[in-house]
Write a structure and sequence with these properties.
single chain, 480 residues, mainly alpha, 17 helices
């Protein structure tokens, strides 16, 4: 008999483990790496990004567009590696919020959590309204009825989103995986066809030195980064994943590399065509504008579901700590925070619906949601990079490589954040003021709760841990 088999045969229960983890009630240890990858990839919406962003990127940066995207992919990979420093040691539905709290303390954690929540909700609203408007444009050509059709599509999508999340984690992630896989496969096929039609002319990808400007590159990276935000959301599935300390960091890296590769191919194809028609290269090259709209809509609606899913898990962690109302921390018999999912889905629906029904447009919504998504995620990513070396030093595991990687990634993110804020100040001051006001109010409310709530500050940053039932002979656990 092997030593492992003998140890299993003679295994004794651990009597020092509690009966429940802080995330009791969740369906623990059932999700796989596939679920983490599906959540992360769907949140980045690579199919929709490939068809929408490159043309706008070219309009902003000219020949520097592809270079900016390559730099953005490198920065995202660095941030993913930093997140892996935490996710190999901590498992929490709070993801970056919990990581920042464990490194920099509860006050910084509240700021990071508020920024992350703002980012999730802003992108969820943006993609929900964008996907719905594209479907509405396919259904009707009457300008006066597009808003009503779009609201109807958003209502139907929200009902499906809340229902899917409430049914269970694996259902939501598998649906996301199927939708995004179909959309990405279609876009890749179009991309290769487009590249073939140009004779694989990659000259537009080469930057012209005369167009180089540090400010243009920084703003371009900030814009390109919007196409990758949400990749970290797979970390929120840690407590529900099998072998979370392996599956979560692995799943996040796989999703980053896959998304980066797909977006680079799609961008190369668009830039190869963009000289002929900068406003709509896909439609002009192949005459398939309706198909492009359908793919983008599918990808964006899947993104909205993924962002709502991530926001639900973040709210679950905050609720279990006592920072926000307890309803967000309740779980259904299926082991999912269904009530929180329904409430968050309704918030995501209500704002864009109100804007459209009151006579506004999607551009009116984006005045606030676009800078909210950009600033929220940049701030959350920067804080987790600053927190990583502090956390590792505290537990005696800081290495030179980890310190250098965290410092470089954090410095780059802060530089991009400052540039993005300066650019937004010049182009969209009203939106920036609204975003800063929202972030300030939410952070202040959280800090007040930390100071006044009984025992709240001691619970902030809570994470999952092994319980007696996770071990051999798990019936021998002791009460808390």
């Amino acid at each position: 008999m092997s030593a492992l088999a003998d140890a299993i045969r003679r295994g004794r229960p651990r009597l020092d483990l509690t009966r429940e983890s802080p995330f009791a009630g969740l369906h623990r240890r059932h999700a796989s790496v596939v679920d983490v990858v599906a959540q992360s990839i769907a949140a980045t919406a690579p199919a929709g990004v490939m068809l929408v962003h490159p043309g706008a990127q070219f309009g902003r940066s000219g020949s520097l567009a592809f270079t900016e995207l390559v730099l953005t992919v490198g920065l995202v990979v660095a941030v993913a590696l930093v997140i892996g420093m935490f996710s190999r040691r901590i498992s929490s539905t709070g993801s970056l919020y919990t990581f920042t709290t464990r490194g920099l303390g509860p006050w910084a954690g509240i700021v990071g959590g508020s920024a992350l929540a703002m980012g999730y909700l802003a992108i969820a609203m943006n993609t929900l309204s964008s996907g719905a408007m594209r479907i509405a444009g396919l259904v009707t050509s009457e300008p006066g009825s597009i808003a009503g059709v779009a609201v109807a599509v958003m209502v139907c999508t929200t009902v499906i989103t809340a229902g899917v999340i409430a049914r269970g984690l694996r259902m939501s992630t598998r649906i996301l995986l199927v939708l995004e896989t179909i959309a990405v496969a279609a876009v890749l096929a179009i991309s290769f066809a487009a590249l073939s039609s140009t004779g694989w002319d990659l000259a537009p990808l080469v930057p012209r030195p005369t167009e180089f400007s540090p400010d243009i590159v920084m703003v371009g990276i900030a814009f390109a980064l919007i196409g990758f935000v949400g990749f970290e959301s797979g970390a929120a599935l840690g407590p529900e994943s099998r072998r979370p300390f392996a599956s979560v960091p692995r799943g996040i890296l796989v999703s980053v590399f896959a998304t980066g590769a797909v977006v680079l191919v799609g961008t190369a194809a668009q830039l190869a065509l963009v000289a002929d028609d900068p406003t709509g290269p896909w439609a002009s090259a192949a005459g398939i504008g309706w198909f492009v709209d359908l793919i983008v809509a599918t990808s964006f609606l899947a993104c909205s579901l993924a962002m709502t899913n991530a926001a639900t898990r973040l709210a679950f962690a905050l609720s279990r700590e006592g920072v926000i109302p307890g309803v967000f921390g309740r779980v259904s018999p299926r082991g999912v925070p269904a009530a929180g999912a329904i409430l968050i889905a309704l918030v995501v629906l209500s704002v864009p619906s109100a804007v459209l029904l009151l006579g506004g447009s999607r551009d009116d919504l984006r005045i606030v949601t676009s800078p909210a998504g950009m600033i929220g995620f940049l701030l959350a990513y920067a804080l987790v990079c600053v927190a990583a070396p502090v956390f590792l030093a505290r537990i005696g595991e800081l290495t030179t490589g980890a310190a250098v990687l965290s410092t470089v990634a954090g410095t780059a993110l802060l530089a991009v954040l400052c540039t993005a804020v300066a650019s937004t100040t010049a182009t969209d001051p009203i939106g920036l003021v609204a975003v800063l006001a929202i972030l300030g109010l939410v952070s202040s409310a959280g800090m007040v709760r930390l100071r006044r709530g009984t025992g709240v500050i001691e619970r902030v940053g809570v994470h999952d841990w092994a319980v007696a039932s996770d071990t051999i002979g798990g019936d021998g656990e002791v009460p808390r």
